[in-house]
Input
Amino acid sequence: MKGTYLNTATVATGSLIGLAIGKLIPEAAQNIALNGLGLVTLGIGVKMFLGSKNVLIVAASIAIGGVLGLLLGIHVGLVHLADWVKHSVGGAGTFSEGFVASCVLFCIGPMTLLGCIQDGLEGRSELLHLKSTMDGVAAVFFAASLGIGVLFSAAFVLIFQGLITLAAKPLAPLRNDESLLAELTGTGGPIMMAIGLNLLKIKEIPTANYLPALALAPLIVVGSRRISAAMEARKNPAV
Output
């Protein structure tokens, strides 16, 4: 769990620095910075999506995962949680936006999964050290533009990554399976793009609802392999 603790600390520290800097930056400059973050996030999402080897798996994962997330009320739940914390601490108008966007942004991508598995199985956290640095820098800019909600996303990082670390043993096969990782990364791409679109105010998309897609993508890959193997066995029955 050392890597997750470090990641949580860097997000919190970066957020505090961003909050301090944000008070000194004019609103127009904050808007420019936020648009820049939206463009970068959109670009990262496109890059992740292009890593997929089977777009149909990504499409199915996103579509089904989005419906599951809607039925489970994931996005609404995060917003309600953010609103409750906002009223408790007296946060600003962008509190919920900053909290939800940061929660999703800091917990998506293969580095989160692989880093937590490495930490849980081997007690090593090199990947999470790198991720911690990147997240800490991102938290500075996000907090400066979106406010204190980004700081509270550190708690979500602690819980989310902590759970993955504790479940490292059953998730271990993922890190050595390139196809599974490719579709997991590809599925994370559209979710990142959705965050970018939200930050750019182009379209409001309930990004957290698509989180189940990250679990569905590997399952669909495994299922399609078994179906293909069964069909091949029928074509070439053992003598």
